[in-house]
Write a structure and sequence with these properties.
single chain, about 350 residues, six-stranded mixed beta sheet, globular, binds 7-O-phosphono-alpha-L-galacto-hept-2-ulopyranose
Length: about 350
């Protein structure tokens, strides 16, 4: 269990990133996603490990590969005995985070794999979550205010004032990143009225949630509603970097607190994943818990976390990061692939 699998996974994310990068700006997000999925799935088969997908491409009936519940196990495939639960890993993947960014040649796309001990990554349906993420220096705010801001009990202004004080900055020097979505209009107004700066992302709140934990990202926090699956992926990286995140399931509309009530179908989906308390606030370790958590990602298009794939004359250059929570090791890997 102590093997740093993430170092083996970097070959998987590199291959998926290169496959997806060939589709940048070609207007076909499905083709880009499919290329990344196929490459990732094929490369997983080359690694000697046993895993169950907890976050993937969707339910079994909607995704032929990397669907929730899919198991891969090299020795079972080779006719060996059924893998013991203690040797099984949970795996959360997004073969292409930001398919639209790739299709339309925008900013911030990556391919990502998070691995944890079996039962330690949140098995979440693909719904929305209201999220707040800060970096390591803001842990104090995490304890006091992160919980409050995601459920709407602490105002955005109060949260940002607290964050600024903790970071030793003026609120006007705080930069909040959020997804550019109509559902964030109120949140945007609240941030502006508090006097903070705003950066928007067309897609990609995995990198957005990790950015505050990176010393030089220029981002102090992420706020707003994004995909629940991306919360688990981001938590994998935040664990290693020492930042904090809180997230609560959201019906998708409204402002900071999520606004509108859940639809019946959403509640049923949550229940089918064993999530009965729909108002529970999940912190970083609830999303990606246990001693063994790794995060591996390769950039497809430049973003706050990684540079994208560059096609050179005789080589393709990729930029990846490999993080391991147990040792807090962060490795940046630039690879040149001959072709
Ligand atoms: C985000 C973002 C993703 O979905 O979580 C977002 O990180 C949320 O969904 O890159 P909507 O697009 O419906 O707002 C993505 O944009 C795409 O998966």
């Amino acid at each position: 269990m102590d093997r740093n699998l993430a170092l083996e996974f970097v070959r998987v994310t590199e291959a998926a990133a290169i496959a997806a990068a060939r589709f940048v700006g070609r207007g076909d997000k499905n083709a880009a996603d499919q290329a990344a999925v196929e490459e990732m799935r094929a490369r997983f088969n080359q690694i000697d490990f046993c895993a169950e997908v907890v976050i993937g491409e969707g339910e079994k009936d909607e995704a032929p590969m990397l669907y929730t519940g899919e198991r891969f196990c090299m020795h079972e495939r080779n006719g060996g005995t059924v893998c013991a639960p203690e040797n099984l890993f949970d795996i959360a993947v997004d073969p292409l985070e930001c398919t639209d960014s790739v299709a339309y040649g925008r900013y911030n796309a990556l391919t990502v794999i998070v691995v944890g001990q079996h039962g330690k990554l949140l098995k979440a349906p693909d719904l929305y979550m209201n999220k707040a993420a800060v970096g390591p220096k803001a842990r104090k705010v995490f304890e006091e205010k992160l919980y409050g801001v995601v459920i709407g009990a602490v105002s955005v202004r109060e949260f940002l004032v607290g964050l600024a004080a903790t970071l030793g900055k003026d609120v006007s020097e705080i930069t909040v990143v959020l997804l550019e979505r109509p559902r964030h209009e109120t949140l945007m107004r609240e941030i502006r009225s508090a006097g903070a700066r705003v950066r928007t992302l067309t897609d990609g709140d995995v990198a957005g949630a990790i950015a505050p934990s990176l010393e030089d990202s220029g981002i102090d926090c992420l706020l707003g509603i994004g995909a629940s699956t991306e919360a688990v992926l981001a938590a994998g990286g935040i664990r290693t970097l020492g930042g904090s995140m809180a997230a609560v399931f959201s019906a998708g509309g409204g402002s900071a607190s999520g606004g509108k009530p859940f639809e019946k179908e959403q509640i049923e989906r949550l229940n089918s994943y064993g999530i009965i308390d729909t108002e529970k606030v999940y912190f970083t370790e609830d999303l990606a818990g246990g001693d063994y958590v790794t995060f591996t990602a390769t950039g497809v298009i430049d973003g706050p976390l990684l540079s994208g794939v560059k096609f050179g004359q005789n080589k393709i250059t990729t930029h990846s990061v490999v993080m391991r929570a147990k040792s807090s090791t962060v490795r940046y890997i630039t690879s040149e692939h001959a072709y």
